[in-house]
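The aim of this short unit is practical: by the end, you should be able to scan a pair of folded records and say something sensible about each. We start with the first protein, listed as its amino acid sequence and then its structure tokens.
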Amino acid sequence: MFSEDFIQLLRVSTGQAETVLEALEAAPSVSIRLNPSKLKECPFPNATPVAWSPYGYLLKERPVFTLDPLFHAGCYYVQDTSAMFVGHVFRQVLERLEPGASVLDLCAAPGGKSTDLAASLRERFGDRFSLLCNEVMKNRYGVLRANLDTWGDPCTACVSRDPSAFGDAPLFDVILADVPCSGEGMFRKDAQAVAEWSLQTVEFCAARSRRILGNIWPTLKPGGFLIYSTCTFNHFENDDTVEWIARELGADILPPQEFPPVVNTRFGQVLLPGLVPGEGQYVAALRKHGESSSIRQADVFRLFQAQRPLPADASAPLVNVERETALRYLHGDAIVLPEDAPTGPVTVGFQGHPLGPGKNLGKRCNNLYPKAKRIKMDVR
């Protein structure tokens, strides 16, 4: 299944090749991360907390998330446990920031890490932060925007720009660069990544990552932090690139804290299937040379004409419905609201969480849920 080149590079890069290869033959795990602004307890029974995420839970089995109204209300995000470790490293950096911090998630789609950053920033700073989420690929940008809309944090916004189009002004206190990579850590979930892997692909991805980082580096403030991550194992895209950033762009590498069973590398940390329940993930943190300055905080949302999440109509009363009606609403069907529901514009909700707009006529409620978001599968 795996090429000899991959196996040899895995041995050199991790020293855990046999453990990883065995794990890649097993079924992937499933996990969620709560939206703490909407949900405080895991809605699934017998879930196990994720050690490095205050909001993460490993599930015993995979539910049909499409048929859970809480999923559509943005109460949680389905995310691999290993990917959550990037949020853990971000929270370590967050302790050094001040209210009003400006953060860029450079390669943000589909939005898992963006929503994790948003939750951590909100817990620490309330409304006093800005998180700009960028995705250059137009087809992936739509997914990012939809997920940020569903998550619903007003201090986030999204944009679609090449890293070279951000300019040279030092705007950001933190940049997360979860760069496109050869995807070795996703082999268990992505057969195409296995088929497309080669040493040439690794070399191409490493060079592309350095181009991306070189283009965006001027926008990181002096004394600001870069969190660099990939979903791959090899040292060319991971430690070697971090070493290049420090040497060529000018940064100090922050020594990683011990967090077994996460493996410390020369400059970062790697999560290996077989040692952790999730997929492969690498992350490192660096601090740009120079002293933090009193640069006036720019309105990065206005500067880049970013799109904010669509707010719910606060003037429309929230009308809660039971699960079956909620699913029919999410499917796009006309529904009937409880007899005591007010007529006119309403917000259809489930367990106190808004799902979307409707217009109650009394005998029925016209469904105004956006067509692009409607459930396609049978909800009966």
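Turning to the second protein, read its sequence before its tokens, just as you did above.
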Amino acid sequence: MSSGLDRLLGARLPGPPEGARHGPFREGTFSSPLHSERRAARVGLWLGLAFTVCFLTGLTSHLIQNPPGWFYWPASPAWLYRVTQGVHVATGLAAIPLLLVKLWTVYPKLFEWPPAGSVSRAVSRLSILVLVGACAMQLLTGLINIAEWYPWTFFFTTTHYWTGWLAIGAVAVHVGAKAPEIRRGLARRGTAGAAAGLTEEQAVERAAVDSAAEYQSVSRRAFVVAAGLGVGAVTLTTVGQSFSPLGAVSVLSPRVPGLGPQGLPVRQTAQRARVPDVGADYRLVVEGPNRLELTLVDLAAFPQRSERLPITCVEGWSASATWTGVRLGDLLEKAALPRDTEVTVESLQERGLYRKSTVAPPHAASPRTLLATGLNGSPLDPDHGYPVRLIAPNRPGVLQTKWVTKVTPV
């Protein structure tokens, strides 16, 4: 009975009808051994790792911006978010050529016959459609976002977050469903047949296919090198936006450290944010038992501190600068509030999702958190938040509120 089952499972499915025996349905159309289980499994391993890293770092960014009660994000080290978000964008970009290579290795399966010989096979193929669609959507919209081109009407951040869950879930389901094939593909050549439980005849046939690959005009090594060069080129030409030493060669970076007013890139300008002109009537209000209404002259009378801190955008670019201003903790103490009070910082910007941000206790209490009035030795440029902006260590740039007018305890 067992041998009969083995023969049944090993039997070849009938080919397509005579009317369809042309184009991609023709016998022997996909002759390259690079369209193999072995190649697909190895590329899939790297792609899966990239998606996992990208998902975890993206989830971290989401939790920082929308923290649930259990979540804790420290104020130090100051460079941590710079690393996590830089890795998020870099792995997302590197995943684009990896996804294309992965699709190339498996696309002949699109032309298998019959298209779905059973209900389980139909469900499997539909799940792959969800997988490819979610991954392509995630990578494409992420790429368009960092280019600041928005040809859609949906809110990118929310869509990106939920599509990320859909994509990583589809990856997990795919890995579970294809575990036997993945194990065979990742197995060493000498033990692949035994590890997969193949018959001697099937193992010999598989070994012959793998051996033939070594003698093709496009060898396995050339394939790996080409894929690696593609990923490396994408990374090298973009990673300089967060890793400054490579800024000169990162010609595809949307933001280059060192460019912009006062040597710092700008994501949101004062004009674009429709910030009203600041005159002599400007006041910074700090709510508390001892309510403060401070002019810029009043702020200048407080002890002035300077901190070298990075500004890190969720789009992946980051740059360090020297900020000068008053410690947030000093102002809270002056307003008769504990230095670690959780506060909301409000902008002069009249509308926008990020015109307010919450400063959690670790950042409020940090001696490096400033309400800055100066940047790199000069007064703040309007595009960098004049007259006052928040700058705190280890936070996304969208939470470093510009054009600050009010601080309120939560």
